[in-house]
């Protein structure tokens, strides 16, 4: 049973200090940290460590086989330990011309704050610090030990996180974990995610000549890298969204009855999605309901994220390109894995006559899910009811990816979400933003979980 | 019968003055004139007109529906008039990182001179002026009237040239025309081109959403612009180079017996092409001979010149692109025409379910050929024998395109080529260059044609 007076004091403390935390957030957003472009990474790791120390935690910047990882810790009055997984890197800001204010300068318009990474994931770093500060100030001490692991490669596939976790199992030992995101749906209902799809992000590239040629000279007789790429991609997926790589679906587990039951309770966001993204409709004539919800998260994907070849400027250039490449993102569902998919993709391209198309794995992570009946999951759900005044929507798995596999299956932790996001956040797109009310609610929810954690059995 | 002493004097004059003309060429190359990027166009037109006036010609910059056209003229001692068609615009210099010296700064390395446009087509503008200057200095006066039409949109398809010629038929009236290019093959044999393929350059674009989405969110349920583009492109041409647009080939004239005879006399450049462009081989297993030569110029093409969609930077960005586009260049042979091809392409995309793919015509021109037995063609061939000491190779049609259709079929002129090019020029590619010896030979050949022109019947 939680102490309502105590929680009310914590909530009041959070509201009184929101301006301070917005200043801290502006400070963090002003420091670019684009992992895909290796821009500002080391500086941001140092800044995050410094911000942890300013809040009274021990913190250090640890090296990994990739970008540095910020590790932090603090002591509490129980022997329980809560781990916060977060990331300090952000997506590239491009295309810059579609931003209404500079991406690395937090800008307020109405009740929204805009900056690259403000929702994904810098606002969550600040929300965790704000929640811990409020709980500690009100209680005098933290009720549990806390650990932070704040990585710098989440936006490029967290490629070194599994090995880092494996190597530092003792350091990271804990009893539960709060994930890097969380928030509300279109109606302001809090959401709870119990798993994530995996990812296998590859670059397909082909080179047919040492230099570009004049299209009038070579058009009829030279191989063309752009055509080779188009034909190769075309063999990967048909117009009905069937992925044509032999064996691609063989390790796909269908959703369980409980998964489908949880999906059935979730609201139908199809109309809002259509409006937010300006879609004429969904793939394969889907219009909403459980079918759309199920497809969105329980189906693996093959998404072209980028295409590049030849001349792309204004007007015309009559060139026959020597090189072409595509970025392709496969989202995986239990129990698919990146090495399996890369192997099957390579075999498929070879069998289709595309040995000239190179496959390079740029990022990968396995899919993972948490058991819905764990006491820590129940705590996260019950505290959400208190903070948001609404029943949370429990998602058995979400469409996105993250390195939750090693946390769930190596460290053996229940992992829950709590946070500041909302569907209009435009994460990964221009004008990424957060809304002030959801920022405050996300801090409160985090604080209530911390307060109740020592008693959750 | 030409006067050998006179020609020897002209040749000597050309050799004595080569440094002056190299300086003029450096001056012209230093002025960027990228029509695809609307960069330096007006400035270059004024510079070219000024350079004509410095050589004693009347010159003016005329407006057109597109970029300005430089018109020039000068009087001679006969009533015959020779028209020079040239262009002052150049291809974009990108990719800049592949240039070994700045593209807009003529740089000598050994006997080669490097700059964007040095061969295509600024070196030819200078070669015409150098030839006219030599003939006039040696003869005292020009033996014929001359006219210049120097346009600024050749590299973007000369889209306004047909209408300009149509509108200014009286101004441009002449008896023969020297085209903007010419030169030698891999063995240094002079070449003579009797026609050019047409071009129909389109942009295919598709938009499936108002903004990009997170690939984890939309990958299974949102339409993806890049996939739509790949699937649409795939319907245009198969892996055996068959263009699949219904009716595409119906206006294609096969080569005549004379065309094939001319092709048969041409040397086989397949080995040099393979080496220069670093090709593993030619399309469809072709290895050379008349089949390769015939395919290279008498087959229409469908070339992807550029692909663009989504994220193209380093590393990964997990984005589902809202927009995708391709630049596609169709080379046409007699009697295909751009409007016909655009119409058939549109109908094909609609029939294949790709009404969402927009087609925009960016540039077009019809194919055209000159009769090989015209006296002016014979003059161009005979003078080449004198200058180069070798029989010229007569190409019935070449793979490239240009606005020769209105000159041949509206003005009714025989059109021949003469110039400074060689197969290593890298036109349209980084490190475009010319070789000093071929520059001098191209000037001499042009001068000999001018000298003999009044007597050619």
Concise description?
The structure is a homodimer of 457-residue chains. With 457 residues, chain A is an alpha/beta fold.
Task: Give an overview of the whole structure.
The first copy, chain A, has 457 residues and is an alpha/beta fold. Chain A folds into two domains: 277 residues, Aminopeptidase; 121 residues, 2-Layer Sandwich (Alpha-Beta Plaits), CATH 3.30.70. In chain A, the strands form five sheets. In chain A, strands 1-2-6-3-7-19 form a six-stranded mixed sheet. In chain A, strand 4 and strand 5 form a beta hairpin. The model of chain A has no long low-confidence stretch (mean pLDDT 95). Chains A and B meet through strand 10, strand 11, helix 6, helix 7 and helix 10 of A and strand 10, strand 11, helix 6, helix 7 and helix 9 of B.
Average pLDDT across residues of chain A?
95
- Outline of chain A, from the CA principal axes? globular
Number of domains of chain A: 2
Question: Mind telling me the CATH superfamily name of the largest domain in chain A?
Answer: Zn peptidases
Instruction: Identify the strand order in the major beta sheet of chain A.
Output: 1-2-6-3-7-19
The count of strands of chain A amounts to 20
Counting copies of identical and different chains, the oligomeric state is homodimer
Largest sheet of chain A: 6 strands, mixed
Second-tier CATH architecture of the largest domain in chain A: 3-Layer(aba) Sandwich
CATH class of the largest domain in chain A: Alpha Beta
User: What is the third-level CATH name, the topology of the largest domain in chain A?
Assistant: Aminopeptidase
Most residues in contact, chain pair and counts = A-B, 93 and 94 residues
Q: Approximately how much helix is present in the residues of chain A?
A: 25-40%
User: From the alpha-carbon coordinates, what is the Rg of chain A to the nearest angstrom?
Assistant: 23 Å
Poorly predicted spans of chain A: none
Beta fraction of chain A = 15-25%
In whole angstroms, how far apart are the ends of chain A?
A: 12 Å
Structural class of chain A: alpha/beta
What is the count of helical runs of chain A?
A: 14
């Amino acid at each position: 049973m939680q102490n309502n007076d105590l929680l009310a004091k914590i909530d009041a403390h959070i509201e009184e200090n929101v301006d301070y935390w917005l200043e801290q957030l502006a400070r963090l957003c002003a420091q670019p940290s684009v992992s895909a472009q290796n821009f500002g990474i080391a500086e941001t790791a140092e800044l995050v460590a410094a911000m942890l120390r300013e809040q009274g935690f021990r913190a250090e910047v640890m090296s990994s086989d990739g970008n540095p990882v910020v590790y932090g810790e603090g002591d509490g009055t129980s022997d329980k330990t809560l781990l916060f997984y977060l990331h300090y890197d952000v997506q590239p800001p491009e295309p810059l011309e579609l931003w209404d204010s500079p991406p690395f300068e937090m800008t307020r318009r109405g009740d929204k704050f805009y900056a690259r990474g403000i929702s994904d994931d810098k606002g969550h770093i600040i929300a965790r610090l704000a929640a811990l500060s409020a709980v500690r100030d009100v209680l005098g001490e933290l009720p549990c030990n806390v650990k932070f692991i704040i990585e710098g490669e989440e936006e490029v596939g967290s490629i070194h996180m599994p090995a880092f976790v494996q190597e530092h199992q003792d350091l990271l030992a804990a009893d539960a974990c709060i994930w890097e995101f969380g928030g509300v749906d279109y109606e302001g209902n809090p959401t709870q995610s119990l798993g994530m799809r995996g990812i296998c992000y590859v670059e397909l590239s082909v080179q047919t000549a040492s230099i570009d040629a004049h299209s009038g000279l070579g058009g009829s007789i030279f191989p063309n890298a752009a055509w080779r790429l188009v034909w190769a991609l075309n063999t990967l997926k048909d117009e009905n969204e069937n992925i044509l790589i032999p064996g691609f679906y063989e390790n796909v587990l269908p959703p369980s009855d409980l998964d489908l039951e949880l999906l059935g309770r979730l609201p139908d966001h199809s109309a809002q999605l259509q409006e937010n993204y300006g879609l004429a409709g969904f793939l394969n004539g889907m219009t909403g309901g459980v079918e759309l919800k199920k497809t969105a998260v329980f189906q693996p994907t093959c998404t072209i994220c980028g295409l590049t070849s030849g001349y792309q400027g204004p007007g015309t250039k009559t060139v026959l390109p020597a090189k072409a490449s595509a970025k392709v993102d496969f989202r995986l569902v239990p129990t698919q894995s990146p090495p399996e998919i890369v192997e099957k993709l390579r075999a498929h391209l070879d069998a289709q006559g595309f040995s000239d198309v190179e496959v390079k794995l740029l990022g990968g992570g396995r899919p993972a899910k948490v058991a819905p009946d764990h006491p820590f999951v129940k705590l996260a759900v019950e505290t959400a009811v208190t903070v948001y005044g609404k029943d949370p929507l429990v998602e058995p798995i979400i469409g996105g990816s993250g390195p939750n596999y090693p946390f769930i299956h190596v460290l053996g932790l229940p992992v829950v979400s709590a946070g500041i996001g909302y569907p209009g956040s435009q994460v990964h797109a221009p004008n990424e933003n957060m809304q002030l009310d959801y920022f405050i609610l996300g801090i409160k929810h985090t604080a209530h979980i911390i307060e109740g954690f020592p008693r959750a059995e």
